[in-house]
Amino acid sequence: MSWKQNLLRARSYIAVMLGFLIAFYVVLQVESHIESTRYVPNHLTLSNDFPLLPPPRQLTFNEAIWARIAWQYFVNNLQPNGLVNTVDNQPYSTMWDTGNYLVAMISAERLGIISRAELHHRLQTQLQTLTLLPLTDGKLPAVYYHSQYLTPLPSLDHNPRQPDWSAIDLSRLMMALNMASWLYPEHSAAIQQLAGQWQFDALFMQRESKKILSLQKPKTWRLISQANRPSYGDQLYALSSLRQIHRLAGTVLSTPQANQRFINIDGLNIPYEGFSSIAGITRPVVSNLPLLLIGLEVGFDLDSAEMSWRIMKVQENRYNSVGDLAYLGVDYAAQIPRFIENSNPNKPPSAIDNARRKISASALQLSTRSVFSEYALFGTPWNTRQLQRLITLYEPGRGWYEGITADTQQRSDMISATTNAAVLESLVYISMGPLFCQNCMPPSVATPADDQQP
Fold this sequence. Notes:
Blueprint: H1 3-9, H2 11-32, H3 61-77, E1 92-93, H4 95-110, H5 116-130, E2 135-136, E3 140-141, E4 145-146, H6 167-183, H7 188-196, E5 204-206, E6 221-223, H8 232-242, H9 249-253, E7 261-265, E8 268-272, E9 274-278, E10 281-285, H10 289-297, H11 302-322, E11 364-367, H12 368-377, H13 381-390, E12 394-395, E13 399-400, E14 403-405, H14 417-432
Antiparallel strand pairs: 1-4, 2-3, 5-6, 7-8, 9-10, 11-14, 12-13
């Protein structure tokens, strides 16, 4: 029998083998398009010891004083154009801190520190200035601006492959603007007009397949932004804010970050951002403020509630077991960016003290903003104990310091907009509940400030 006849008789077997090979190739192609698995906090459930959140109550005398100390930061650092300095006496600002100022302004009015008329004047000035900001590529506000001259400030810390804007910073500002639009509807038209000038579509780009031979894939999108705030909590905060203003935000920001890291401490998985060496011992550093801000502003969701609680319990458990207050860093002190000098010879000098960067990267063993936020949200004996450790960390006439640094165990020298806004938000939460809760916000507190002129 010839070879050709054998080949003809075996053609059915050859067809079957070819079918298996094609099927095997298809399986390989499918698997090559599936991302590798890793631990992510999907399907969280609240811990058994998660507390009943405390109801609103009247502020104590000391708490009312603490709020006024925090507001003084914004009195001191407000520029005539309506922007506020990110760090005390340093003339640069961000959209995050523009949001901080607006939240602080709302908090001060709700607590009766300023009158409603003064708030309207301050808010109107801020909105007018925001419409004048030079936009990156004519689309969105830049990451940094000179707070006096409104000129963008390029930073050496930025990724040159991404546009000079921050989705996280914009989410903070938009959350604050949405609060203002709801609480003070007379400004809604101006806020809508401002947001209409910005092209939020630029934050999202469809992913393109890198392989020519690939199966039909569903559309996926990625976030276009500087990664200046890359924490797990920042992503959750941006999700809670930006999903209100763009249809793609919920889809994109719900996707776990490829570079997000988690660490297991005493059986609790928590996200962390980096490490700090203290006396030769490496300690994890966690940024929990964005998680706490969700609770203060719109009320906890499951993820922010459980992760906030886990981070706090890790600190408490370590202290109770070994007396270690410095095991877990809970934030970083405010950082002064490395601005590119003389990027525009016609621009006035920035007058930003870059020498202060030597204290800017310190991890905080005790964070003022975190302690105040946890004290307001949870109100446990541990929170009260932590608060007692920092109630002297302020300077009358300037505001609250960042906290106690992990490496030196001394008070940080930084005073920032983020910390003082968080103090004000926390005290409003104690008094009234979440700022952006349509069913739980009572009228503003009536005080003698209502009779004052702005």
